[in-house]
Amino acid sequence: MVAGEINEMNYADWVDEVDFVANDHYVRPGPQSRDELSFSANLTGNPAGGRPWFLMEHSTSAVNWQPVNLPKLPGEMARDALTHVAHGADAVCFFQWRQSRAGAEKCHSAMLPHAGRDSAIFRSVTELGARLATLGSIAGLPRTPARAAIIVDWESWWAAEQDSHPSSRLRYRQEALDWYTAFLGHGVRADVIPVWTDLTGYDLVVAPILHMVPSALRDRLTAYAEGGGNLVATYFSGIVDENDHVWLGGYPGALRELLGIRVEEFEPRLDDPLWTERVHRTDPATEVLFPEVTRRPVGDGSAAYVSARRVSPRSWPPPPRPRLC
User: Fold this and answer.
1) Structure pTM?
2) How far, in whole angstroms, is CA 107 from its chain's centroid?
3) DSSP string for residues in 55-85
4) Where among 88, 112, 138 does a domain terminate?
5) Are residues 185 and 300 in the same domain?
6) d(CA 237, CA 193)
7) Domain ranges, residue 213
8) 323 to each of 70, 118, 143, 310, how far by Cα in Å?
9) Which of 8, 13, 226, 258 is most buried, with most CB under 10 Å away?
């Protein structure tokens, strides 16, 4: 299960120990709700590495645990389910089969709602089942890799969001999701991959807040760029090794030489931008593309650095949803 802010365990590290992977996913209202759905399915399918995985739980309509539990509009249930299928899910399951008459989950939607078989929800469920039956031949097929990728590293997530750091406002997963949204907005398909994934074949790899970088990972990222790949690292990356010990000599630590830059001090902010840095070029070949972005040619590829983070507009309230009869 990799949805939401649940990060107590390094799920990608379990992949070789299990027979199949499963995810529970429930859409949360907001401007990135559908992007997050795709992001979460992507992040489940890629660690599975082509092996079977299940959408173990999702809802036919409203849940019962959000402050306001919005019902799904016509077509949204099928769209949610088929998004997971598109990312390699071989099973689409729901919670729950029959809507409870009593107890804490009696207001949680189900395949067979309180209204019974003569209901829009039940008809939508049976229509989805019929559609999935026509797609049976694609079960077990591997996804075609994208040309771009976003690295997600649970250990960097843990380390970057510890207390006693420059800012408690950084959100690792939100940074990764915003990059995913940016790719979608430009019509670019991107894989969301664990940090140990072979990067060969990706033209562009973004490593958001890759805070924990052991020497072996540094060497692998360097080899990727030298071999023709284009790496993008962000602020607060490369800071510590696998023991959470700071790489000395200036930031971004382990990635300093690869990026051709040096930062002496973190400069978080109280408002907007949320984070910024004074970046010094250490290699004359390093270009300044924008005030917050540098790029250094590396072998046949490149290594770019994004040193700032603006307050995300993603927390704005979503627009009112139209009522359809």
Assistant:
1) 0.92
2) 30
3) EEE--SS--SSSSS-PPPPTTHHHHHHHHHH
4) 138
5) yes
6) 17
7) 148-306
8) 11, 21, 36, 34
9) 258
* Structure tokens belonging to residue 159: 């380390």
How confident is the prediction for the chain on average, in pLDDT?
92
Provide the terminal-to-terminal Cα distance of the chain, rounded to the nearest Å: 35
- Residue length, the chain? 325
DSSP class of residue 212 equals B
Q: Which two tokens stand for residue 119?
A: 């209901």
Q: What is the pLDDT of residue 4?
A: 58
Count other C-beta atoms under 10 Å from residue 212's C-beta.
25
Question: Domain check: are 104 and 209 in the same one?
Answer: no
Whether 165 contacts 123, CB under 8 Å: no
Reported as a single tens digit per residue, the pLDDT across 121-167 is: 999 999 999 999 999 999 888 888 999 999 999 999 999 999 999 99
- 3-state SS of the chain: helix, strand, coil percent to 5? 30, 20, 50
**Does 20 map to a domain?**
yes
Q: Please report where in the chains the tokens 């627009």 appear, as a residue.
A: 319
Q: What is the DSSP letter of 13?
A: G
Is there a contact between 201 and 149 (Cβ–Cβ < 8 Å)? no
Supply φ then ψ for residue 65, to 5 degrees. -120, 0
Distances in whole angstroms, Cα of residue 83 to Cα of each of 30, 45, 95, 309: 18, 11, 17, 29
Distance (Å, whole) CA 179 – CA 70 = 27
| Residue 79 resides in a domain | yes
Does 271 lie in the same domain as 168? yes
Question: Is residue 134 one of the residues assigned to a domain?
Answer: yes
